[in-house]
Design brief:
This protein is an alpha/beta fold. Helices cover 23% and strands 19% of the residues. The chain has a three-stranded parallel beta sheet with strand order 2-1-3, covered by helices on one side. The relative contact order is 0.32.
Amino acid sequence: MLEACPPRPKVLVVDDEFDISSFVCEAAERQGYDAVALNDPEKFTRESLADVNLIFL
């Protein structure tokens, strides 16, 4: 029987520079995190705030 994979830890990246927050999100996703930037209108939703494990400022 297959076991379910544990959910990926969620990371919220907060920075006023879009390039920096995008870079941090990409790096976090390569390390296995589910990352979203606060200033990314395409990915960020109110649901993104649910169950956040880490916040990078």
